[in-house]
Amino acid sequence: MKLKVGVMGATGMVGQRFIMALQGHPWFELSVLMASSNSAGKKYRDAAKWYLKDEIPAGISDMVVEEINKKVADKYGLDIVFSAIPAEVAREVEASFAESIAVFSNTSTYRMDKDVPLLVPEVNPEHLGIIEVQRRNRGWEGFIVTNPNCSTAGLVVPLKPIIDNYGIKSVNVTTMQALSGAGYEGVPSMAILDNLIPFIKGEEDKMEIEPHKILGRLEKNEFKYAGFEAFASCNRVNVLDGHTEAAFVYTDKDFEIEDVKKKLREFEGEPQKMGLPTAPKPPIVLMDKDDRPQPRFDRDLGGGMAVSVGRVRKKREKLLKFVCLSHNTIRGAAGASVLNAELAYKKKLF
Ligand SMILES: NC(=O)c1ccc[n+]([C@@H]2O[C@H](COP(=O)([O-])OP(=O)(O)OC[C@H]3O[C@@H](n4cnc5c(N)ncnc54)[C@H](OP(=O)(O)O)[C@@H]3O)[C@@H](O)[C@H]2O)c1
User: Fold this and answer.
1) Which of 6, 53, 162, 279 sits at a 20 to 30 Å CA gap from 255?
2) What is the mean pLDDT of the chain?
3) How far is the CA of 277 from the centre of ligand 1 (A)?
4) What's the gap in Å between 169 CA and the centre of ligand 1?
5) Contact 317, 138 (CB under 8 A)
């Protein structure tokens, strides 16, 4: 029998991706869609501002949206809730569900808490070990697992084989982030057409701190952050989906460029080894053409879960340059959460 799943924020950009990611899922069955009081009581097709090319799946279109409330978990017998709601409302709501069931969250609210995993299954699966502490600290039967900010999510995957093989002294990254990253009401067309905006509120702070937790270690029930410096410059560009990032990495050890490419190409994490349903194979698609990756062509690789990496160059001793691209609402949001849930389920956390 499949596990029963609810989605909070189901009408939004990320919520729509959850609906698609859960269609025909071998272990999870989408049982309820939740959103704000504006949408509650409406049929999904009338409440959602559907922006995906594919039609709203049959069976979802006529579902009536519920207002977000813990009682919904009991009413539908939920095992899991995926959260894609604004950070401002997440703290109380997510905690109320976590009292009894597993919560996988996209919001920034709990990401940096000392007893909450900020999980990227290919990078730090062992961080799920903190759940036991979280349950004890908070008296919850359920738990919260978070996934990173959508730009961090794409960056840390190629950084993992780099830090493991050469060490990292510092990372300098400039992002070119898609419009869907700002949500449906995010960026007015008059602001972005024929333009780019060199500022995304709060984004640089998240990118400069989250990689330290993700690439750090869990030791004696405490996160030891990775010690490198991170510098980010974040830009909104006129692209629908897919965040592109240009990175400069100063390594501890020197490297041969062909060796770096081999390590990126051959990289695999636990999700690939365990054969999790949402795991892309390979997680990193290494591109040799000088003009790739590009969002329009490459964002959907691996069902939107692969990170494309190109322009891998050695500038001088211990200085590596590359460009990476990932789908912000799939690898950077809904797909990431579903992969987190698959890993936690396989590790028998619920
Ligand atoms: N977009 C991305 O690439 C991305 C990536 C990673 C993480 N995230 C995070 O994921 C979350 C959702 O982002 P999004 O881009 O999907 O936003 P969005 O398109 O604006 O959707 C927001 C969703 O939250 C619901 N909502 C809004 N205000 C609410 C309230 N006061 N109480 C309960 N529900 C409320 C909305 O319901 P109604 O339709 O009823 O208003 C809608 O379902 C945010 O925390 C965001 O930071 C987004």
Assistant:
1) 279
2) 97
3) 25
4) 35
5) no
What pTM does this model have? Answer: 0.98
Q: Whose CA is nearest to atom 21 of ligand 1?
A: 12
Residue whose CB lies within 8 A of the most ligand 1 atoms, among 7, 8, 13, 325, for a mutation test? 13
Name the band, by pLDDT with cuts 50, 70 and 90, for residue 343: very high
Cα gap 120→126, rounded to integer Å: 10
Distance 8 CA to ligand 1 centre (A): 9
Active site residue 127: no
> Rounded to 5 degrees, what are φ and ψ at 327?
-80, 115
Mean pLDDT of 167-189: 96
Of 150, 212, 234, 327, catalytic: 150
Instruction: Indicate if ligand 1 lies below 6 Å from the C-beta of 124.
Output: no
Ligand 1 within 6 A of CB of 192: no
> Which residue from 219, 249, 220 is spatially nearest to 309, judged by alpha carbons?
249
What is the pLDDT, as a whole number, of residue 8? 98
Positive or negative: CA dihedral 174, 179, 182, 186:
positive
Catalytic site includes residue 212: no
Q: Is the dihedral of CA 274, 279, 280, 284 positive or negative?
A: negative
185-199 average pLDDT score? 96
Tens-place pLDDT, residues 266-287: 999 999 999 999 999 999 999 9
Place of tokens 């996934």: 147
Average pLDDT over residues 313-329: 98
Whole-number Å distance between alpha carbons of 56 and 121: 29
Domains and CATH numbers, the chain: 3-149+333-346 (3.40.50.720), 150-327 (3.30.360.10)
Residues in the chain: 350
